[in-house]
Amino acid sequence: MDFAKVYKKCRRAQALGRGLKSVEACVGRESTDYIKIEEAEINGFWPIHGYRVTTLDGTAFFPRNLSELPRASGLAWHREAFSSADIVVPPYYTFRTLGRHAAEINSAVTQDDRLKLGDRMLLEIYPPDGLAELIEGVWSVRKTFDQFHSQLVESSKAYCLGLYNIAIVGLLPCIEGIVRHLGLASGMDVGNDVSIRTLSVVFKRLQQKEIDMMMEGYDWYPRNEISVSFLDRFHERVQMFESISSYLKSKLYLHTDSAPDYLTLNRHGISHGFFQGYATPANYLRLFNLLSALSFAAAMVEGKGSLKHPGPTPESETLTICLLKCAALNHLIH
């Protein structure tokens, strides 16, 4: 059976929205070699209702009406609000916590006010013990983070000591290396390429894998309709990957000639000495938060790891004590 042709016929005849019998009649007019047609549901944070068409050649999914699905649910609103403050959607926090901060940022009138509210949020959700719990309780169990563990610990110590230049510069190679490892783990041969084009493709691959898992068991479905851009309306993991990719493209890796005046946290501007003023506590936490989002992506790729906010561990408590000592020393010397 030519699934694409039959699906288009059923769609034009408006049979898909009228129910199972109408779909059976429509398919029967086009082909008689199907075995069974039944109602089906695809689960992807929101149910996609449709029909499972089974033939000797394979199995297809015909969606009933994709316009039934919401256009801006899940993380969409949060992502827009946090993006306006140059922040990736923070993982491991409840919608209630995220919603409170997103509403405050959305209420700001000027870009400067949005950035200040974003700064305040980051300082609130990432105290020294919070840094330690993520580094030792979450990131330390991610294979994609293994190579960078000691550098992440050193960077957090520099941050608590008030050495923000060193702390920020120390995180940049970790971010690039972890994204490359995510690409390798998802089946991409990224080599040593750190261009934004390659890094963006990594997240497109991760988003497509979400669709592949969702549509497992089907040989055909309308790929131009059930696409990454469609799922980005409501699928929270696809939305999170898009939040990371968008931040990399529009903020961290944005060409310096295109960067707005307020944007100082930019990889090229920092690496080549073009930008000043980036060495602030909140900018360090912007990168730390990006790494936290990458650890969420790593959990998806590696197929293990909790997505809940971590609690203290013996290792994190040891690092917390060290970071608090660094912070106390910072107050003495600055």
Q: Low-confidence runs (pLDDT<50, min 5 residues)?
A: none
Q: How much β-strand is present in the residues?
A: 5-15%
Could you give the distance between the termini? Answer: 74 Å
- Multimeric state of these chains? single chain
Please tag this protein with its features.
three-stranded antiparallel beta sheet; 14 helices; 3 strands; elongated
Structure description:
There is one protein chain. With 334 residues, this protein is mainly alpha-helical. The chain folds into two domains: 3-68, no CATH class; 76-333, no CATH class. 56% of the residues lie in helices and 8% in strands. The protein has 14 helices and three strands. It has helices at residues 3-12, 20-30, 76-83, 95-107, 111-125, 128-137, 149-160, 164-185, 196-214, 228-231, 236-252, 267-271, 281-302, 314-333; strands at residues 34-44, 46-55, 59-63. The chain has a three-stranded antiparallel sheet. Helix 3 (76-83) packs across helix 4 (95-107). The longest helix has 22 residues, at 164-185. The termini are far apart. The model has no long low-confidence stretch (mean pLDDT 90).
